[in-house]
Specification:
The protein is 35% helix and 18% strand. With 223 residues, it is α/β, with parallel strands linked by helices. Bound molecules: D-xylitol-5-phosphate (DX5) and zinc ion.
Length: 223
């Protein structure tokens, strides 16, 4: 299980996203939060911004769609240049069909769950997914406090993924910081989104390196 750090540009300067991407050169991917003011009470960016960012960012883009009707809108993000697209299962009408469509277009398919959504009903969908995203805050805003109540679900998801085998990434998003990442890695997550902990730091790339080192250590200690 290799640790990956995905800085969330939600906490970066929206007037200069190219500079934000360049400031985290050691990051594996960039996490791009798309919000529609309906699925969550916040509005961010859409296809045109993803298209522009994909042209200038060295890292591949991981689009997290916090929107209603992802069945209709998600494929456009692959066309815009996203290498991974994650939809919320709470908003999706046909998750199997959508995941297969995203993969057929050449992208990685991710399924996101809010803190109160259980993972168990979706076990059979894993064959069609490349990533499971467990939200560790209620989606909508950066800078919220990590919800420790999510830790048992992370551990259950890890067990479920290990039972299946394969290489599905287990991503966490919300409140990931130097203070919380170790217990997240111990619980079994391998892919970490961090917004305020990276772009709120004086040296964002050093923050990425620190988060990675903490997670790697905790993950190897946990076996
Ligand atoms: C929140 C977004 C996150 C957000 C995380 O709904 O999905 O990606 O940027 O921000 P932090 O890391 O500050 O909690
Ligand atoms: Zn996100």
């Amino acid at each position: 299980m290799s640790i990956q750090i995905f800085p969330s540009i939600l906490s970066a300067d929206f007037a200069n996203l190219q500079a934000a991407a360049e400031s985290v050169g050691s990051a594996d991917w960039l996490h791009v939060d798309v919000m529609d003011n309906h699925f969550v009470p916040n509005l961010t960016l859409g296809v045109p911004v993803v298209e522009s960012l994909a042209k200038v960012a060295a890292q591949p883009l991981d689009c997290h769609l916090m929107i209603e009707d992802p069945d209709r809108w998600a494929p456009a993000y692959v066309d815009a240049g996203a290498a991974s697209v994650t939809f919320h299962v709470e908003a999706c009408q046909a998750p199997v069909r959508l995941a297969r469509e995203l993969r057929a277009m050449g992208a990685r398919a991710g399924m996101a769950l809010k803190p109160a959504t259980p993972i168990e009903p979706y076990e059979d969908l894993l064959a069609d997914l490349d990533m499971v995203l467990l939200m560790t805050v209620e989606p909508g805003f950066g800078g919220q406090q990590f919800l420790d109540l999510c830790l048992p679900k992370i551990a259950r998801a890890r067990t479920m993924l290990d039972r299946r085998g394969g290489d599905i990434w287990l991503q966490l998003d919300g409140g990931v910081s130097a203070e919380t990442i170790e217990r997240c890695a111990e619980a079994g997550a391998d892919t970490f989104v961090a917004g305020s902990a990276v772009f709120g730091a004086n040296d964002p790339d050093a923050a990425v390196a620190k988060l990675r080192a903490l997670a790697e250590k905790a993950s190897s200690a946990g076996g």
